[in-house]
């Protein structure tokens, strides 16, 4: 029965075509860890462990799991580790006090801090 609206072709009658990509055959997420950045090789991410001192730096090539703007480039200690995420305890200055806050950051956005390098050499 045809009513006011014309009937649309069923999905069975339309030919199945593969979804084509505009550039290349591999999506960017698969080759993301092959990229090199200005600071060096992005390659394999160094694993974080509880108690490590890390910097939470937002990486522009990966948007997911970036720290908030005031938490960018803050140094803190790792308090929890998951498969793709590290929890970092960071100090925040506010209300005339220094408050300890916690943030969750993907491993791409955390680098091991060099702030204790001279202390450990002694």
Automatic annotation (TrEMBL):
The answer to whether the entry has keyword Ribosomal protein is yes
Where does this protein come from, organism-wise?
Gulo gulo
| InterPro entries (alphabetical) | Ribosomal_eL21 (IPR001147), Ribosomal_eL21_sf (IPR036948), Translation_prot_SH3-like_sf (IPR008991)
Keywords (A to Z) from UniProt: Ribonucleoprotein, Ribosomal protein
Q: Which GO terms describe its cellular component?
A: organelle membrane; ribonucleoprotein complex; ribosome
Q: Which protein, by its recorded name, is this? A: 60S ribosomal protein L21
Instruction: Give the similarity note.
Output: Belongs to the eukaryotic ribosomal protein eL21 family.
Q: Write out the GO MF terms.
A: structural constituent of ribosome
Enumerate the residue ranges of region (Disordered): 1-76
GTP-binding: is it a keyword of this entry? no
A Pfam family of the record is: Ribosomal_L21e
Which GO terms fall under biological process for this protein?
translation
């Amino acid at each position: 029965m045809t009513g006011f609206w014309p009937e649309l072709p069923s999905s069975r009658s339309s030919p199945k075509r593969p979804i084509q990509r505009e550039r290349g055959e591999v999506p960017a997420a698969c080759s993301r860890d092959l990229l090199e950045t200005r600071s060096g090789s992005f390659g394999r991410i160094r694993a974080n462990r509880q108690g490590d001192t890390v910097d939470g730096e937002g990486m522009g090539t990966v948007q997911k799991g970036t720290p908030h703007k005031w938490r960018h480039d803050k140094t803190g200690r790792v308090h929890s580790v998951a498969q793709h995420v590290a929890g970092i305890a960071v100090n925040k200055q506010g209300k005339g006090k220094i408050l300890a806050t916690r943030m969750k950051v993907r491993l791409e956005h955390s680098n091991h801090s060099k702030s204790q390098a001279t202390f450990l050499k002694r």
